[in-house]
Amino acid sequence: MNKFVKGFLSLLFTVSFTFSCKEIKTEKTQNKETEEQLVSKDLKWSERMALSEIHRFPDPTLLDFRDTPRWSYTNGLVLQGMAKVYEQTKNKKLYDYIYDYGNRMIEEDGSIHTYKLKNYNLDMIKSGDAIFYLYEKTKEPRFRRAMDTLHLQMEGQPITSEGGYWHKKIYPFQMWLDGVFMAEPFHAKYALEFIEDDEVKRIMDKIVLQFDLIEKYNRDSDTGLYFHGWDESREQRWASKDTGLSSNFWSRGMGWYGMALVDVLDYIPKSHPGRARIIGYLKNYAEAIVKYQDVTGTWYQVLNLPKKEGNYLEATGTSMFTYTLAKGANKGYISKTYLENADKGFEGILEQFITVEDNGVINLNKCCGVAGLGGNPYRDGSFEYYVKEIIRSNDPKGTGPFMFAAMELNK
C-alpha cells in the first residue's frame, strides 16, 4: 500500500471517528439536558412522557425500537402527541424533535425516505399528520409535496365492492379497525386545506363511507364491540366463512377505531350528513366499552373475556379508550358523565402501568407489542394469539395515546 493510500485511509478514519464521537457526545448532551428538565420541573404527565420518549430515542426516526430509519405510523403517532404537548408548553425541545423527523425523512423534492406508494398500505398515511403540522409551521414546499403523495395513495387505494379501503394491497378485500385511524383524519384535514370545494365533498363522502362500512360489518350487535378485521372474500383462515369476520374483540383494534371517531370529527363539516352518523357511532361505542372497564379503571387485552386464563390488563388499548372518552365528552359528542370513566381510566394507567425512574423518565408497561391478522408467520386472530404476542414497555402505540389522554384530561 503506497503512502498516499495509507494517508487517505488514515484521514478517512480520523474524520469518521471524529464525527462518530461528536454524534455520541451530542446524544449524551441531549439526554443530560432532557434528564435535567425531567427532574427540575413540576411537569404534567403529557410533557413528562414526551421528554421520556426523547430520552429513550434521541433519533426520532428510530422510534419503535428500530435499528434503521423507517417511515411508519408509530413515529407519526408519537410525534402528533408531542405536537399537542408543544402547543401547550412551548418546550422547544419537542418541536425540534418533530422537525428532526421531517427533515430526515422528507427529501428536498418531497420524496419520502423508505415509503413505497405501490404498497398501498393505510398504515403509511399516519405520519402525514406530523408532516402536516410541520408544513403549517414552516411552509416548506417539500412537506406539501410529501402530503400530496399520501393523498395520491388514498385516491388509488384498492377498495372492496362497496368502496371500503383495503388495509394493504397485500391484504386484499380486508378492512381492519386500524385503517380508519391511520388514514381518515389525515385525509379529511388534507382535503379541507388543499382541495377545491366540489372535490372536498367527494372525499368527505369516501371518508364517511369507511365508518359506515365498519359499522355495517365489524360491529357486533349483541355486545356493541367491534371485531378486529373483516374479509369480504372470506378467503382468509382467520375469517368466518359466514360473516368474513375475525373471531375476537381486541382491545387496541377497538382503540384505533375510537380514536378515529373522535379525531375525524375535527374535520367533517357540520353540514355533511355523515357527521351526525359518526357522532351516533361514537355514542354507541362509548356505551359499549364502559361496560367492559375493569374495576382498576383499565381494560383487558381481549375485552370480553376478563376471566379467561392468559388474558391481561393492557396499556395501549386502555390509553386509547381513555383518550376517546375524554375527548368525546370534552367536545360534547357524548355525555359529560363519561369523563368519570376517563378519569378512572387514567388513574388506572398510573397505578397499573406507569413506573418512574430516578432520573425522572417514566415508563408505560404492559403494552401489547404487535398484533395483526394473516401474514407470515400466520396470525389467526384467536384468543391464544392475542394473549401470547410480545408484551413490552414503552411501545409507541401506547406512549402516543397516553400523551393524548393526559392532554385531554389536563393531567
From TrEMBL:
> Pfam families of this UniProt entry?
Glyco_hydro_88
Q: Which UniProt keywords apply?
A: Glycosidase, Hydrolase
An example GO BP is: carbohydrate metabolic process
Q: Which Enzyme Commission numbers does its entry carry?
A: 3.2.1.172
Q: Which InterPro entries match?
A: 6-hairpin_glycosidase_sf (IPR008928), 6hp_glycosidase-like_sf (IPR012341), Glyco_hydro_88 (IPR010905), PolySaccharide_Degr_Enz (IPR052043)
Query: Listed GO molecular functions?
Result: unsaturated rhamnogalacturonyl hydrolase activity
What PROSITE patterns is this protein classified in? PROKAR_LIPOPROTEIN
Q: Which PANTHER family match?
A: UNSATURATED RHAMNOGALACTURONAN HYDROLASE (EUROFUNG) (PTHR33886:SF8)
Q: What is this protein called?
A: Unsaturated rhamnogalacturonyl hydrolase
Organism of origin is Saonia flava
